[in-house]
């Protein structure tokens, strides 16, 4: 009932009918998502790149992936470049943020979202999504670190769970891809999700 009311409210607030697909949940597929940004502070951060990949059943649809570079208003500083390797010249020809986000919304539609610390990525995206659509991302969210936490506590209720990405990758035995690349990180999150799903925590 609450979900139906939320959808009704979101439909009323929607600025543009072309984004109505966000409210039509598509549970046969998921989208794993990651963003690279200029800062870890949501208020100040700007998008630099967005990566996403679809998941259908037990398969990662790498042929149906999404990746864009985004042109920020302010050039990435040296500290930001050290983390993700995206230099000012790399993003200078990127898409305008609203264009990049519009393309992303077309890609994800009403599919649930998967990610590692997904709350941060969604908060960044909502800075662009809400002015564009009139609503925040309504998609159901699946947090990989939360599923892993539940998995480890089931094994040992008194354990102190290490939620660092490298720990999850090692413990769940998924391939370690180069980090701080939005598409690689989205694929990594999708592999972690499927590994947890096989263990009964999907």
From TrEMBL:
One Pfam family, please name it.
RNase_T
Q: Which residues form the Exonuclease domain?
A: 29-202
Keyword annotations for this protein, in alphabetical order, are: Exonuclease, Hydrolase, Nuclease
User: What InterPro entries would the database entry show?
Assistant: Ribonucl_H, RNaseH-like_sf, RNaseH_sf
Q: Which GO terms describe its molecular function?
A: exonuclease activity
Under the heading CDD domains, the entry gives: DEDDh
Identify this protein by name: 3'-5' exonuclease
Naturally occurring in which organism (per UniProt): Vogesella aquatica
């Amino acid at each position: 009932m609450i979900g139906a009311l939320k959808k009704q409210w979101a439909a009323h607030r929607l600025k543009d009918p072309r984004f109505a697909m966000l409210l039509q949940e598509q549970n046969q597929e998921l989208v794993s998502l990651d963003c690279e940004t200029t800062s870890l502070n949501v208020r100040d951060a700007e998008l630099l790149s967005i990566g996403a990949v679809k998941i259908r059943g037990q398969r990662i649809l790498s042929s149906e992936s999404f990746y864009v570079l985004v042109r920020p208003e302010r050039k990435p500083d040296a500290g930001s470049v050290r983390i993700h390797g995206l230099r000012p010249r790399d993003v200078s020809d990127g898409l305008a943020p609203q264009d990049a986000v519009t393309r992303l919304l077309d890609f994800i539609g009403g599919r649930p979202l998967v990610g590692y610390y997904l709350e941060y990525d969604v908060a960044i995206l909502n800075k662009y999504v809400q002015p564009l659509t009139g609503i925040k991302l309504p998609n159901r969210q699946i947090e990989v670190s939360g599923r892993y936490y539940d998995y480890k506590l089931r094994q040992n209720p008194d354990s102190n769970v290490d939620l660092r990405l490298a720990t999850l990758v090692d413990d769940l035995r998924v391939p370690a891809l180069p980090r701080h690349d939005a598409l690689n990180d989205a694929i990594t999150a999708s592999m972690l999700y499927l590994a947890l799903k096989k263990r009964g925590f999907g």
